[in-house]
Amino acid sequence: MNEKELIHLAQTGDLFAFNELVTSYERLVYNMCFRILSNRQDAEDLTQETFITAFQKISQYRGDSFKSWLLRIATNRSIDLIRNRQHSVEVPLEPETVDGEENKNMDWMIDPQADIEQIMGLSNLSDVLRRCIEKLGMDQRVVIVLIDVFEMGYVEATEVIKKPLGTIKSRLVRARNQVRDCMDRSLEHFRIADRHKGEA
User: Fold this and answer.
1) Do the Cβ atoms of 125 and 184 come closer than 8 Å?
2) Burial classification of residue 62, based on how many CB atoms lie within 10 Å of its CB (0-12 exposed, 13-18 middle, 19 or more buried)
3) What is the sign of the dihedral through the CA atoms of 35, 37, 41 and 46?
4) Which residues, other chains included, contact 145 with Cβ-Cβ below 8 Å and sequence gap of 6+?
5) CA-closest candidate to residue 184, choices 194, 176, 172
6) In the Cβ-directed half-sphere of 19, how many Cα atoms lie within 13 Å?
7) DSSP class per residue in 135-191
8) Tens-digit pLDDT profile for the chain (200 aa)?
């Protein structure tokens, strides 16, 4: 059976058909949750919750991209989890200045407790990139994961996030700039460490 047939059967309550859909998309949903949450256990839990929610609401699915529909559920669940945790410890997602303005200084993206040895413990460039993405505010993190990590087109990203195209592009530009600055600063630690090794 093709995907449309499986969805139709799942909408009638057919668990076998829905499980076939789970098999097709489980890895994608998990990867999406993990990229946003950066925690394997949380990603596994949210993946399960995503498919439970999808089964409960599949009658509301109206025939657009099923992948986008699933990722929208996963994204919203992930955002809710992080925002609830951030709220519980009263830590802003995007630091502000004392005047309440957006902090243009990217120093906050570098962990002040991270020394050279910690940064050098990252095994490769992709680890540095992942660490920098983790430092982003949630709105920017979701956009850069969808478009730059999962290579999703702008139109599909708007279907997942349900925001206007202009908002998506604006968030992506900010995310890329912040990640670039974070990468530059992190890689400078590598260069400093290399110089120290050469002097030893």
Assistant:
1) no
2) exposed
3) negative
4) 32, 35, 36, 133
5) 176
6) 3
7) TS-HHHHHHHIIIIIS---HHHHHHHH---HHHHHHHHHHHHHHHHHHHHHHHHHHH
8) 899 999 999 999 999 999 999 999 999 999 999 988 888 999 999 999 999 999 999 998 988 889 999 999 999 999 888 878 766 544 444 444 444 444 444 443 444 344 434 444 445 677 788 888 888 888 999 999 999 988 899 999 999 998 999 999 999 999 999 999 988 887 776 565 555 555 55
Pull the structure tokens for residue 14. 């057919």
Amino acid letter for position 75: T
The pTM is what?
0.71
Which residue segments constitute the domains of the chain, with CATH numbers given? Answer: 3-88 (1.10.1740.10), 106-199 (1.10.10.10)
Query: Which of 102, 120, 125 minimizes the C-alpha distance to 191?
Result: 120
Token pair belonging to 187:
């890689």
